[in-house]
Every structure is written in C-alpha cells, then in structure tokens.
Amino acid sequence: MNLRIIAGTFGGRTIASPDGTKTHPMSERVRNAMFNSLGEVVQGIAVLDAFAGTGALGIEAISRGATHATFIERDRIAQKVLAENVKLLKITEKTKIIKASVSSWIDTYDGPKFDLIFADPPYHDMQFSTVTKLMGLLKPGALMVLSRPGRSESPTVPGVVVVDNRGYGDAVLTYFRLDDKAE
C-alpha cells in the first residue's frame, strides 16, 4: 500500500506502507486536516514522530518546511519501510531514525526538546504512560498532537493544556501545548 504526501516539497509523491495490521497509517484526510490546522507552525522546526510507522507525519512535516524529524519505531518491518521512504525522498540528512520502543528511548534520551511532537500509538495499545512522558520533551509553548480512538480518554499532565480536540470518524486528534511558563 502506498501513502501520498499531501503538500509541500514532496506534495503528490507516494511513500510505502507496510502490509498487515501492525501499523495503522493516519488517513490522508486526517493528516491533511491536522497539517492545515497547524499551518505555518511546522516551518523551520524540529519534530518528533513517535510511534512513526511509515514516517508519514514526520515526512509531511519536512515536506512543509520542518528542518529535522526524529522518528521512533520499534517494529522491524516498519523500520525498514521508514528507512526506504527517507532514502527515496533523499532526506537522510534531515532525519534520524531511532530503532526502539518509544518507552525505552524516552527513558534514556537527554537531547534537546522538540517544537512539535506527533504521537500516533497503536490504537489497541495507547501507552498513555509513555505518551505523558513525551510531553516532558516539549519546549515551552510547543505542541504535541495525539491521535487516539474517539472512545478513549485523553491523558493529562500538570502544565500541559489541551488546546483543541478534533474528531474524524473513529479518530480524534488532541492538541496539547506546554505552558510557556513551564520549565
């Protein structure tokens, strides 16, 4: 199965997606709505694509002007597809692929914080404890977008506020912002 990059430098190009049910790529409609709502926010920033799968979210961000994307993916087949997608688009120098679970990576990460985090965990295993830890990697004023099933709850963390919830069929995008005054 192929996914289409919607807009930007790579708009209209397709990237590969693994067969099977281990990954659930965000639909083109939901991705388009999310990036339209983010607007110019992605210009010139570093993004983290947690639970990356195909890398569609980070690649779309680079296509729309992000300077760097870090991808975290634990599934070997998805890692291979992601690496092929990055190579195909010739964006290796703008990316870093972490071959680990988000949970194990976050426990050892001590690098810079991120301007924008995409969290799209498997719907059958939302890993809210890991998702809440991801919020600790936001720069003050930065955003995290969580894709979750519409029937699920949204995690909460002191100092991180929900600024938007948008439903698309059985998917909900929850936008979190780290308070500007947070350390």
Question: Which key phrases capture this entry?
Answer:
two-stranded antiparallel ribbon; 183 residues; globular; Rossmann fold; seven-stranded mixed β-sheet; alpha/beta
Helix/strand order, N-terminal first: EEHEHEHEHEHEEE
Poorly predicted runs of 5 or more residues: none
Assess the beta-strand content as a share of residues: 25-35%
Largest sheet: 7 strands, mixed
Helix content: 25-40%
CATH architecture group name? 3-Layer(aba) Sandwich
> What's the β-strand tally?
9
Estimated structural class: alpha/beta
Measured between the Cα atoms of the first and last residue, the distance is 42 Å
Name of the CATH superfamily:
Vaccinia Virus protein VP39
Major β-sheet strand ordering: 5-4-3-6-7-9-8
Overall number of structural domains: 1
Output the CATH class name.
Answer: Alpha Beta
Number of helices: 5
Indicate the overall shape.
globular
Radius of gyration in whole Å, from Cα? 15 Å
Average per-residue pLDDT, rounded, comes to 91
The CATH topology name reads Rossmann fold
What does this structure look like?
The protein has helices at 28-38, 56-63, 76-88, 102-108, 128-134; strands spanning 2-4, 14-16, 46-50, 68-73, 95-99, 114-119, 138-149, 160-168, 171-178. With 183 residues, it is α/β, with parallel strands linked by helices. It has one domain (2-19, 28-178): Rossmann fold (3-Layer(aba) Sandwich), CATH 3.40.50.150. A seven-stranded mixed β-sheet has the order 5-4-3-6-7-9-8, with helices on one face. Strand 8 and strand 9 form a beta hairpin. The N and C termini lie far apart (42 Å). The mean pLDDT is 91.
